[in-house]
Write a structure and sequence with these properties.
Structural class: alpha/beta
Mean pLDDT: 91
CATH architecture of the largest domain: 3-Layer(aba) Sandwich
Number of helices: 10
CATH topology of the largest domain: Rossmann fold
Strand content: 25-35%
Number of strands: 12
Low-confidence stretches: 27-32
CATH class of the largest domain: Alpha Beta
Helix content: 25-40%
Largest sheet: 12 strands, mixed
Distance between the termini: 27 Å
Oligomer: single chain
Shape: globular
Number of domains: 2
C-alpha cells in the first residue's frame, strides 16, 4: 500500500523516481480504507531533506499511511521558506484536538544548548505531554530522543569530547522484543551527534528498556515497556550521502570535524560511501509501524487514550 501525502510535496517526485508507491491526497480520499495517521514533527532546518528521508522509511510497509507534517509555531527555520511551511505543514495548534496512530519527532542541530534554552522548548514539552493521550506510539530521533528522555525521566545529555560521527556496529540486547524482530546479531547504523545519554542513567528508570547499544557509539535504542515511546539516538533514516555532505559542510566552514568512521571506501572522503545500514533501517520502521502502531491502535482512532 502507498504513502498518502500532499499532492505537490517535492518528496513525491523524488520517491516516485525511486519506484516507491506514493498516492496523492486527491486519489486517496476516494478509497474506502482507514489509513494509519502518522504525524511528523520536523525540527530540522532543511525540512525537505528530512521529510523525504523519513517518508522513504515509512514507504516499506503494506499499510496505507497518511502523513501530517508539523513544525513549531515558536521557531521559524531559516532554511525553509515560510510559504513552503504554510503550504505543506501544520502547527500543533492545528491538530491538538486530533488523534494519531503514530508520531515521529526528529532531531535538531541544537545540542550545544541546554534544553531549557531552546526557544521552542515549552511548545515541545506541551507536544510530548499531548502524545501520551493522543498517539498510540511515538518515535523520537537523535536530539528528539534526548529531549524525550530528559522531559519524561530527567535523564541528562552529556557533551562528547569528539563528535560521534560515522557508521557503527550495534548489537541487540533482547531479540524477543518485536521492534528488533529479524535483526542480525550485529547491524550497522549512522550517528552524527555531539552529545550522548548514558547507560547508567537509563538503568535507573524501571519503565525503560535498553534495546540496542554499541561498544563505540553507546546507547542506540531505548523504549518504554509498553512501547508507546521509542527513543533512537542515531539516524537510520539517513541517505547514502548525508554524512558525506555534513563532513564537507563542516570542513568548508573551518569547523573541527573528522572523517566519518566506517563510511567512505578505504576511509577516503574522495571515494563514494559504502551504504550498509539500509536493511536495518527499513526493518526498524517496518517493525515500529506493524507491532507498535498498527497492531496496537484501535480501529476507531478517537478511542486512543
Amino acid at each position: 500500500m502507498p504513502l498518502n501525502i500532499p499532492d505537490q510535496l517535492p518528496a513525491v517526485d523524488i520517491l516516485q523516481e525511486e519506484n516507491i508507491f506514493v498516492m496523492r491526497e486527491t486519489k486517496a480520499i476516494h478509497q474506502d480504507i482507514r489509513p494509519l495517521r502518522i504525524a511528523i514533527l520536523n525540527l530540522m532546518p532543511v525540512k525537505i531533506t528530512t521529510e523525504t528521508q523519513i517518508l522513504r522509511m515509512l514507504s516499506n510497509t503494506p499499510l496505507q499511511v497518511e502523513i501530517v507534517l508539523l513544525y513549531t509555531r515558536d521557531h521559524r527555520p531559516k532554511n525553509t521558506p515560510l510559504e513552503y511551511l504554510q503550504a505543506f505543514y501544520k502547527t500543533f495548534g492545528d491538530i491538538e484536538h486530533q488523534k494519531f496512530d503514530g508520531m515521529i519527532i526528529t532531531g535538531a542541530p541544537i545540542e550545544h544548548l541546554d534544553f531549557e534554552e531552546v526557544n521552542y522548548w515549552n511548545e515541545l514539552k506541551e507536544i510530548m505531554d499531548w502524545v501520551h493521550h493522543s498517539v498510540t506510539s511515538t518515535l523520537f530521533i537523535c536530539w528528539g530522543a534526548q529531549a524525550g528522555l530528559f522531559h519524561y525521566y530527567g535523564i541528562p545529555k552529556y557533551k562528547l569530547d569528539k563528535k560521534m560521527f560515522g557508521v557503527f556496529t550495534h548489537t541487540v540486547n533482547d531479540p524477543r522484543i518485536p521492534l528488533v524482530r529479524g535483526f542480525d546479531e550485529e547491524f550497522l547504523a549512522p550517528h552524527s551527534r555531539h552529545t550522548e545519554v548514558r547507560r547508567e542513567d537509563i538503568l535507573k528508570v524501571k519503565d525503560l528498556i535498553i534495546v540496542s547499544e554499541s561498544v563505540e557509539a553507546g546507547i542506540y535504542i531505548v523504549m518504554t515497556r509498553d512501547g508507546r515511546s521509542i527513543f533512537i539516538t542515531g539516524h537510520s533514516e539517513y541517505d547514502p550521502n548525508t554524512l558525506r555532505d555534513e563532513y564537507w559542510r563542516d570542513l568548508n566552514k573551518g569547523l573541527p570535524i573528522s572523517i566519518p568512521r566506517n563510511y567512505f571506501s578505504q576511509d577516503d572522503p574522495l571515494k563514494p560511501p559504502i551504504v550498509r545500514w539500509k536493511s536495518h533501517a527499513n526493518l526498524l520502521y517496518y517493525n515500529w509501524l506493524n507491532y507498535y502502531v498498527y497492531q496496537q491502535t484501535p480501529y476507531d482512532i478517537t478511542a486512543i487514550t
